[in-house]
């Protein structure tokens, strides 16, 4: 798919045609070429491929304002199991529904998407604030859960929780939370907003950086202020070894539970957690509109993250074991029946299909798609009854 890289942005219609082998970075660059008041709500990692990201229900830092990438798809090109090239009108409503969050690879080859772009202001604001446990990090994380439920939809705040070395006491470990924000507006308005809703964070004007939305895609990808936007066209990703897992939180964690979590993170000393705030637009789109079901009722999504450089089975077993232990520890605090998971953080720990059976597929399918799994199975059975398009976590055909 990597050779399918054509992107056509139409600023007048506020749409983009995107071939599936394009990267998010390339998409953001092409949007910036044409407009400084249009954007697209997708992920912050520029080397991620558009086809997989979008078809799996990709999200980014405009999730509270504009929802998911799949909420903005208006057409697609798909090659089905019979080799037919289909668009939205010829594939039908069911298949068009399925490839907007159910993963394209179960149903055919998604060649391109056409999407509506979203309006963004000429100036957006970002900040990155770190607080250690001694700085009341636990209480701040606790308050953040409640603040983000109904605050201005233009604001997204991600938390990165990590075990780190104490900056003041050599050899001592502690915990640190990083508040990473995108606000679709100016810094004065943001400081006033958080001064009223979240004064404990202590946000000051000097903590904020104002820039265009296009520049903010570079900021969120950890590039410095002097980086040229052409870096977004770089498709080279220096790979290391990594494992990701996910969860959804529907009931706020108590201060005691957060303290227990910090203790566990410190004990394991390696995996970190990312809390992604929900609410806003995610509370407004019905769970059945797309295959992605984790909408209203979720306070935030957790990403469990561990990366390492040492090759070999011993290192793999060690690090994967650590992230599994942290995931198991969090069981009482997250969604249940089923315990939800995010499809684009493919996690074979939650189930694998060896023979393509419904019974195998249901194990992971319910966690990724909840009640929408049943409709995905019906679509799969209709468009690919011989299960030509299959992988270790694909949608199965009916029993």
Total separate domains: 2
* Order of neighbouring strands in the sheet with most strands: 11-8-10-9-13-14-12
Can you give the helix content as a percent range? 25-40%
SSE pattern? EEHEHHEEHEEEHEEHEHEHEEHHH
Strand content: 15-25%
**What's the architecture of the largest domain, going by CATH?**
3-Layer(aba) Sandwich
Query: Outline, from the CA principal axes?
Result: globular
Structural class: alpha+beta
Low-confidence region ranges: none
Per DSSP, the total helix count is 11
Straight-line N-to-C gap: 32 Å
Indicate the mean pLDDT: 96
In this structure, how is the largest beta sheet organized? 7 strands, antiparallel
Per DSSP E runs of 2 or more residues, the count of β-strands stands at 14
Protein name: FAD-binding PCMH-type domain-containing protein
InterPro entries: BBE (IPR012951), FAD-bd_PCMH (IPR016166), FAD-bd_PCMH-like_sf (IPR036318), FAD-bd_PCMH_sub2 (IPR016169), Oxid_FAD_bind_N (IPR006094)
GO molecular function: FAD binding; oxidoreductase activity
Family: Belongs to the oxygen-dependent FAD-linked oxidoreductase family.
Any overview of this molecule?
This is FAD-binding PCMH-type domain-containing protein. GO terms for molecular function: FAD binding; oxidoreductase activity. InterPro entries: BBE, FAD-bd_PCMH, FAD-bd_PCMH-like_sf, FAD-bd_PCMH_sub2, Oxid_FAD_bind_N. Keywords: FAD, Flavoprotein, Glycoprotein, Signal. Residues 1-120 form the FAD-binding PCMH-type domain. The chain has 399 residues and is an alpha+beta fold. The protein has 2 domains: 7-119, Uridine Diphospho-n-acetylenolpyruvylglucosamine Reductase, domain 3; 123-211 and 239-348, Vanillyl-alcohol Oxidase, Chain A, domain 3 (3-Layer(aba) Sandwich). 30% of the residues lie in helices and 22% in strands. It contains 11 helices and 14 strands. It has helices at residues 24-34, 50-55, 63-66, 88-98, 137-150, 187-197, 213-220, 255-268, 313-329, 358-369, 372-383, and strands at residues 7-10, 15-19, 38-39, 73-79, 85-86, 109-116, 118-119, 124-132, 155-165, 173-183, 208-211, 241-249, 272-277, 300-308. Strands 11-8-10-9-13-14-12 form a 7-stranded antiparallel beta sheet. A hairpin with a 4-residue loop joins strand 1 (7-10) and strand 2. Helix 5 (137-150) crosses helix 8 (255-268). The protein is globular, with a radius of gyration of 21 Å. The protein starts with 6 loop residues before the first strand and ends in a 16-residue tail after the last helix. The model has no long low-confidence stretch (mean pLDDT 96).
